[in-house]
Each structure stands twice: as structure tokens, then as C-alpha cells.
Write a structure and sequence with these properties.
- The structure is a single chain.
- It is built from 31 helices and 18 strands.
- Strands 7-6-5-8-11-18-17-14-15-16 form a ten-stranded mixed sheet, sandwiched between helices. A two-stranded antiparallel sheet has the order 1-2.
- It starts with 25 loop residues before the first helix and ends in a 10-residue tail after the last strand.
């Protein structure tokens, strides 16, 4: 089988995995396994050398070697071969490295399995197109030989025509030959596979006769094809002079002329494009890996041997042609090898057998590549049609599609016309092979240790550079379009393709780079100017807090976002970690909600201990959560926000499964929500202790309430622009930056208040919330002399902080009077008892429910129109743990019926007026 065998092999279920319903019994399976083991008995010669030589010795060696020498001269021809074989040698080194890095199944699956589905799938499509175009190219080569031999012939009785000639007649001949290849591929591809050795014997015999003919055939005059003298300016004959130095000297330098088959003026690039098609086929040996007795031994030796043999053969044939044939013969008779052969029909046999064999091989290979891509479901159902097979397993739909595309390519009409496209496709594929090896080398993956070590990242880079340079030299437009097309395919697979377990080289590269940059991210260099919100959101049951999870995803902007969960229990006595089975469900939920978050689960004997563990161990270096977000502790019954919804969960095993089981839709595997009256895993004292623990550990704290009422689609849909103007119903974000339970006019500039302002500003800077408007409420007493002064200071501070907000003054004399009456006339606004960070302790012994309810009513009174979310100041918990229930009760009264609300306490400086 030639290089054009499947890039993604269609036997994707040959590895371990779930057994189908009709699987044979174990004894029968063991027998088949032994048969497969005995079937892998091909050695270096039959398994690698012969397939590679057969795929490289095709139409070019018989019909285009004279064309290359006649146009480019011997010197530039040698340079072309050196460039081409430099590229394929660098690629062969990469192929041998990848193919000897562990066992491979039959078929050329190394690129896809080495690079992952996004790269492997995109390269697979390019390889498919290259095979389709190559199949058409070889058919056109056969048609050219047929027309040259049986078109217009000149004999003793004058010219006579056997077959009609012309564009449409040539198209008819090509269509007929391609249809015959299609029939064979459709009903008897196994027959062709068994005949490859016979074809190789024929091709080898013809090549030997060609070399012998240069030495035994006497000088003669060759009649040129009539089509080569169409302009009437050339002679009808040319000379085969035998070995003469004068002839060699005349063929040393280039002499680019018009190609008589296409009418186009030739150049170095166009001649190289034609010549390079004779150098493809180097992946034939690796594609036979599943049938080799020792692939790691056979592939490197066999492939390198085939490359050396073809390099010597091509250069020797070019030298003999330049030494014995004048320029006229080389430029105007592409089938001159038959004219000077000891038995001319033998060359025709070689042309027909090698070209038809290569065309059929390309067509079979293209269909298998397409079938494998459809089996892997990389394009989310776009290739479902190509997945259809016959009862015998033959992918007839893929064969049909490949044949139709090859038929479309035949309309190009001439071999030299499509040679550039085929060359660019193969160069791009070879560049991808080198990229695969380079990426594996750069990723420093411990399991990338191929037995073939005659390569370095330098050879991979040189191979990539050589491929890209020659692509743009051949045709810059085609090269640019093909690269862009491949990148688009990559992105398409990235977003539409399912998750696979092939191993993503992108993940290995990302890990390598992230580790390096995490080490460079020095926590000692942190500065307030570049502060980011890094959140750990504790989730009891994801079913009841999807709205909060989506909101925090917006709030964190470009910071770290971690979803934490504590499962109660101890690992002692358990057979395995119970969290492993649920981790995939959490990741599937993250994908379903389209949020950018990590998942960190832990097992502990209490929720408090679990939260402590997560705060201690989550993150690396400077990438650690600085803010803990908790759901509010109240008596509200949680609502199941995932009820009736399905989440896409990956269901791949160690091998790719059939498309029907690649993905399955199933309800998320999370426990049902707690019903009203059911006991909680967390008690009031423990909940407040979690808050206190976080503050002791230097973490900011956020309590989120009523986010089961939050609908992101409804809120953000109202804030969009309509007719270029901001909609009147743009969402509001209300800020109450004063500690409402400890009235102090100077509280607007403490660390916690500035933290509230920063969070609201960050939320408004996200794209989704860019239309939201901030409303900042300044609570003052009507008779207070500081009213005007404080408002001016607040507006100046907002200006310095570059925060745009509507400042609304709220007179709360009646409310604050309740506080001071309860306090018994103590000094107002005093700063006694403040903590080191400037925040006052929680005065729970001085508060009444009447005062807190009045504050709550004040907030609701100034909430028109209803804001999307409110930001409130969260006081510190009391130092006395006996007052924790009172603290929680006061927070409940403060935030009751306010809608989606964040109670926030910040302890780290986050804003600066200098940048």
C-alpha cells in the first residue's frame, strides 16, 4: 500500500474498550488475536521498501524526468532533487521517530494520535485532498501516454489517427479510467492489495530496461509528437545521440520554454512542482506498521533505504538523459524513454501499470482517510454521509465521494496543471509531520522516547522551514489559501469535535509553558496596580446555584475562578477515592454553562475542614484564590435549576468508540436538591466559622443571596444597544459601601468600601455588563455638617479611581436615630474598638431587629428601578463565637427580600490612583 493509505485508520475499535453486543466469545477472540499476531510477519523489504518504492516510482519517473532536465538543465535538476530530498529526508527522520514511539495499529494514524484530533483531523483533510488530486494526476499521466501512443501516429504511409484527440476526448479517456478504478475500489480493493508485488516487479523490470537501453541502443532520430510542434516553428524530429560530451554540455544549463501540453511558460518553481510528485510516498512504510513483524526496526531502515534508492535512480536517470538526448528531444517528447528503449512497448506497460496502480492506491487511501474522519466524528456530523458501509465493511460512501472529487479535478485537463496543487498539499502534510515531532520534542513529554533517535528539533525545524519555503515558491497564493484552510479546519474541530483520549499535544505544550510561567510569576512581585479577583466559589450542590456560577464567571473577569466542593467522609475504609467518578460530571457542567473555571473537590469530615483544605492547597504560586464566595445561609428551599436539562458528557475509553457511543446525553450525576425541612450538612456556627477562617487566612469574603432569582439572559438582554443607543432598561448595579450596621461617615474610604467599588467596576468592564450603570448610595444625615463635604470627597475619589457611577444621597436620619438611641447616646461616629485594619468589630450587642429592618426597608425604598444585583458591606464576624447565631440573624434581616445581593468584606487593598 502506498503513502496514500489512511492517515486515520478505520479500524478504530481494535483496542480495548466496551464489547459490542455481537462480540465473539472469549475463546474465539483469543484465536483471532493469535491469528493477527501471526499475520504481522512482514519484514523490511516486503513491508516497507517495496510499498515505498512503488509509491515513489510512478508516472514522474517515466514521463517527466526528461521534462525536468530539458527545462531546468542538469545543474538545476540536481539542485531540485537535492532540495526535494532534503525536505523528505528531514520528514523521514520525523516519521521514523513518531512511528517508533510505541506500538501502532495498522494504518497511518500517527499524526492524528500524536498531535491530537484538532491537528490530526485538519491534516487528515489536507491529506485526503492530496490523495484525491494525486489520483487525478496519475490518471492524467496515463491519458497523456495513451494519447501519445495511440493518438496521431506517423508511419511510412503518413500520419494516421487511432484514438481521437482533444480536450474533451482526453477528459473522456480519463473519466473512463477513473471509473474503472472506482469500480475496483468499490467491489475489489483487496484484489489490488494482493497485486502490488506484481506491479512492483513490472515497474522494476521496466526501469532496468530503461537504464540498459541507454547503453545498448544506437544513436537514432526520434519523431516528435505532433502536439509539440503546434506552432510550426519546431522540427518534427530530435536526436538521441548516445553518450556524447557535446550533448551533455548542451544540457547543463537551464532553458525554460513553453510546456507543449499546457501552453504555459515554465520556471524553476513550476518544474519543481512537477518533479516533487515523484518524491512523495515516504509514509508508505509507516502506514504498514500494523502488518510489520518489528515496526521500530523495519520502518527506519526500510524508509531510508527506499529514499536512497530513489534518489540515486532519479539522479542517475537525469544524468543519462542529459548525456545522451539533445535538448529538443527532452523538451518536446515527454515519452522519449519509450522511443529509445530496446523494446518500446515495455515502457508503456510500466507507465500504465505504475500510474493506474498509483491512481487506485490514492483513491483507496483517500476514501479510507475520509471514512476514518467520519468515524471519529471530528466535524460534528458533517461527514455522516461518508460513514456508510456495505455489509462487508467497505466504506462505499467514502469511495463515492473521493471518486466524485477526483473526477472534478480531471477537468483541469493536464498533468502539469494540477501538479502545483498536489505538491503544495503534500508539502503541507510533510510540514505537519515535522511539526508533530517538533511539538513532541518541545513538550518534553516523558513518554516520547522513540527507539529511533537520529533526529533533533533542528531537523524538524529545517523540515518545516523547507516545506513552507518551497510551498510559497511554487505558488504563494495556493500556499496561503491551503494554510488558512487548514487553520480553519483546526478551529472547526476545536469547537465542534468531541473530547477524545488520543492525547492532545496542545495540552502537553500548554502544560510545559504554564509550568514555566507559573515559576516566573513571583508572588513577591505582586502589586496593587495589577490586582485581579481570584475566586474560590464553594458549591454545595451545582443543581441549585447555576445562576451564581454564571454570575461569578462574569465578576472574575480575567482572574482565577475555582469551583470548590466538600464531600463529607473519610478516606479510611473506602476502597477508592469517591470524588474521581464525579469529577467528569463537574467538568461537563462547566462546559454546559460555558464558564471558564477549574474544579477542585475535596473529602473531609466537616465542611469547615474541607473549606480550610481548599483555601490552603488550591492554586500554585501567585495563582491562588484571594476571595472566598459562599452561598447565603438561610431557610430557603433550594431550587433545581438543572431539572429536565441534559448535559453532554464524554464517554470515551482507551480507544475511539463508534460514533453512536462517542457522546451520550444523560442527566448530570449530581444529588437531588435538599427539600424544605431537611437537615443541612452545615450548622450556623460552622458557617460563620468558615467566614472567620477565611478572614484569618487573608481572604476576602463574599456572601451571595437570592441568586436563584438571577437570570443572566433576562438581565443582560435588557442592557443591549438598540439603534445605536443604550436601551432605557439597562441593568443597574447598586452599591451601599457604608457599613450600615455601624454608621460612620468616614467608612466610605476604608479598605472594604474600596473593595466593593473595585468589584462593581470590574463587573462593568466585562463585555456582557458593559451597558450596566452603577448607582452609589451615600447615606448622610440631613442636619450633619459633613454632608456636602463627604459627598464632594466621594465624587473626587471616584474620579481618581476612574470609576463612573451615579452618586445618590440618601437621608437616613430616622434610621440612624434608632441606632444611637439603642446605643444610649454614646459618641457618634467614634473609632474606639477598631481593629488593626481600620474596620470596627461587629456590634451585635448594640443592634436591634427594629434598626436592621429599618435599614433593609431603606435599601428597598431606594431600589427603583429594581437593580440586577446589589453590593452591600459585610461586617466582620464577632470575636465571641457565642454571638455567631446573632450575627447570622442580623445578616439575614439586612439582606432579606433584596433580590440578588452580594454581602462583601474585603481586607486587601485593591485600588490605586497611581498607574
Amino acid at each position: 500500500m502506498s503513502e496514500k493509505a489512511p492517515l486515520l485508520h478505520y479500524r478504530l475499535t481494535s483496542g480495548p474498550g466496551p464489547e459490542p453486543a455481537d462480540a465473539p466469545p472469549p475463546r474465539q477472540r483469543r484465536g483471532r488475536a493469535q491469528e493477527d499476531k501471526h499475520a504481522r510477519k512482514l519484514g523490511v523489504l516486503v513491508g516497507v521498501v517495496i510499498p515505498t518504492l512503488l509509491s515513489m516510482f510512478s508516472v514522474v519517473v517515466f514521463l517527466r524526468v526528461g521534462f525536468v532536465v530539458g527545462q531546468a538543465g542538469l545543474y538545476q535538476s540536481a539542485a531540485m532533487f537535492l532540495v526535494a530530498y532534503f525536505i523528505i529526508t528531514m520528514t523521514v527522520l520525523s516519521i521514523c521517530a513518531i512511528s517508533t514511539n510505541g506500538a501502532l495499529d495498522a494504518g497511518g494514524d500517527m499524526i492524528s494520535r500524536a498531535l491530537g484530533p484538532e491537528f490530526g483531523g485538519s491534516i487528515g483533510i489536507m491529506f485526503f485532498l492530496a490523495n484525491v488530486c494525486s489520483s487525478a494526476l496519475y490518471i492524467l499521466g496515463v491519458v497523456e501516454a495513451v494519447v501519445s501512443d495511440f493518438g496521431v501516429r506517423v508511419g511510412a504511409a503518413g500520419a494516421h489517427q487511432v484514438f481521437p484527440t482533444g480536450y474533451w476526448w482526453s477528459l473522456l479517456y480519463g473519466t473512463t479510467l477513473l471509473f474503472l478504478c472506482f469500480i475496483v475500489c468499490l467491489v475489489g480493493a483487496h484484489i489490488y492489495a494482493k497485486a502490488t508485488f506484481i506491479v512492483f516487479i513490472i515497474v522494476t523490470t521496466v526501469l532496468v530496461s530503461v537504464f540498459v537501453s541507454f547503453f545498448v541502443v544506437a544513436p537514432l532520430e526520434v519523431t516528435l509528437p505532433e502536439s509539440s510542434v503546434w506552432n510550426g516553428t519546431g522540427h518534427g524530429t530530435a536526436n538521441y545521440s548516445g553518450f556524447r560530451l557535446l550533448t551533455l554540455e548542451g544540457n547543463l544549463m537551464p532553458s525554460y520554454t513553453v510546456d507543449y501540453t499546457t501552453g504555459a511558460l515554465m520556471s524553476f518553481a513550476t518544474v519543481f512542482a512537477v518533479m516533487f510528485n515523484g518524491c512523495t510516498g515516504i509514509m508508505a512504510g509507516s502506514n504498514m506498521s500494523g502488518d510489520l513483524e518489528n515496526p521500530s526496526y523495519s520502518i527506519p531502515r526500510g524508509t531510508m533505504a527506499a529514499v536512497i534508492i530513489t534518489f540515486i535512480a532519479y539522479n542517475l536517470l537525469a544524468l543519462l538523459a542529459a548525456w545522451s538526448c539533445d535538448r529538443q528531444l527532452l523538451q518536446r517528447d515527454y515519452s522519449f524513454l519509450g522511443d529509445i528503449n530496446v523494446w518500446p512497448p515495455l515502457v508503456n506497460v510500466g507507465i500504465y501499470s505504475s500510474s493506474i496502480s498509483a491512481a487506485m492506491s490514492n483513491l483507496i487511501g483517500a476514501s479510507r482517510i475520509l471514512f476514518a474522519l467520519s468515524k471519529d466524528n471530528l466535524f460534528d456530523g458533517l461527514l455522516d454521509l461518508a460513514r456508510r458501509t456495505s455489509h462487508g465493511g467497505n466504506p462505499w460512501a467514502s469511495v463515492l465521494i473521493s471518486w466524485m472529487l477526483a473526477q472534478a479535478v480531471l477537468f483541469a485537463g493536464k498533468l502539469n496543471t494540477i501538479a502545483s496543487v498536489v505538491t503544495i498539499f503534500f508539502l503541507l502534510v510533510y510540514a505537519a509531520v515535522n511539526l508533530a515531532c517538533l511539538a513532541l520534542e518541545w513538550a518534553s513529554a516523558p513518554n516520547f522516547r522513540p527507539s529511533f533517535r537520529c533526529f533533533t528539533w533542528h531537523t524538524c525545524a529545517l523540515g518545516i522551514l523547507g516545506c513552507l519555503v518551497m510551498m510559497f515558491l511554487v505558488n504563494a497564493i495556493y500556499a496561503f489559501v491551503s494554510i488558512v484552510f487548514m487553520l480553519l479546519l483546526l478551529l472547526l474541530i476545536q469547537y465542534l469535535g468531541p473530547i477524545s483520549n488520543w492525547g492532545y499535544i496542545s495540552q502537553a505544550l500548554i502544560f510545559h509553558q504554564v509550568r514555566k510561567y507559573l515559576l516566573m510569576l513571583d508572588i513577591r512581585k505582586d502589586h496593587v496596580k495589577f490586582w485581579r479577583l481570584q475566586v474560590l466559589l464553594m458549591v454545595a450542590n451545582p443543581r441549585s446555584c447555576t445562576g451564581l456560577m454564571a454570575f461569578i464567571n462574569d465578576l472574575k473577569k480575567s482572574g482565577l475562578y475555582v469551583l470548590g466542593h466538600v464531600t463529607l467522609g473519610l478516606l479510611d475504609g473506602m476502597p477508592s477515592d469517591p470524588l474521581q467518578s464525579s469529577h467528569d460530571s463537574w467538568l461537563s457542567l462547566v462546559d454546559h454553562l460555558n464558564i471558564k473555571a477549574f474544579v477542585n473537590l475535596t473529602l473531609a469530615d466537616s465542611v469547615r475542614r474541607g473549606v480550610q483544605n481548599l483555601l490552603f492547597v488550591t492554586g500554585f504560586g501567585s495563582m491562588r484564590p484571594n476571595t472566598l464566595v459562599l452561598g447565603f445561609y438561610d431557610d430557603c428551599a433550594p431550587q433545581d435549576q438543572l431539572e429536565g436539562k441534559l448535559i453532554i458528557c464524554a464517554a470515551r475509553d482507551s480507544v475511539s468508540l463508534s460514533p453512536a457511543t462517542d457522546q451520550e446525553q444523560r442527566p448530570p450525576t449530581f444529588p437531588v436538591v435538599r427539600v424544605a425541612g431537611e437537615s443541612k450538612d452545615l450548622q450556623e456556627e460552622e458557617y460563620v466559622s468558615v467566614i472567620a477562617d477565611a478572614l484569618k487566612m487573608g481572604k476576602n469574603i463574599i456572601l451571595a443571596r437570592y441568586f436563584h432569582q438571577f437570570s443572566r439572559e433576562e438581565v443582560l438582554g435588557a442592557g443591549r444597544k438598540v439603534g445605536g443607543r443604550r436601551c432605557a432598561t439597562a441593568p443597574f448595579i447598586d452599591l451601599w459601601p457604608l457599613n450600615l450596621l455601624r454608621p460612620d461617615p468616614r467608612g466610605y474610604v476604608d479598605v472594604c468600601s474600596l473593595f466593593l467599588l473595585q468589584l462593581a467596576s470590574v463587573l462593568c468592564e466585562t463585555r456582557s455588563w458593559s451597558q450596566a450603570r452603577l448607582r452609589l448610595f451615600l447615606c448622610v444625615e440631613a442636619g450633619c455638617s459633613l454632608k456636602v463635604e463627604e459627598e464632594a470627597k466621594l465624587r473626587a475619589m471616584l474620579k481618581e479611581l476612574r470609576i463612573s457611577a451615579q452618586v445618590q444621597t440618601v437621608a437616613w436620619d430616622q434610621v440612624v436615630t434608632l441606632h444611637w438611641q439603642r446605643q444610649g447616646g454614646a459618641e457618634r461616629g467614634g473609632a474606639e474598638g477598631r481593629r488593626q485594619d481600620g474596620t470596627p468589630p461587629f456590634p451585635s450587642n448594640q443592634l436591634t431587629e427594629e434598626y436592621i429592618c429599618a435599614v433593609n426597608a431603606l435599601i428597598r425604598t431606594h431600589g427603583a428601578p429594581q437593580p440586577a444585583v446589589r453590593f452591600l458591606y459585610l461586617p466582620r464576624p464577632p470575636a465571641d463565637t457565642r454571638r455567631y447565631p446573632a450575627y447570622l440573624q442580623h445578616m439575614d434581616l439586612l439582606s432579606r427580600d433584596l433580590g440578588p445581593t452580594l454581602l462583601i468584606h474585603g481586607i486587601t487593598p485593591v485600588v490605586t490612583t497611581y498607574f
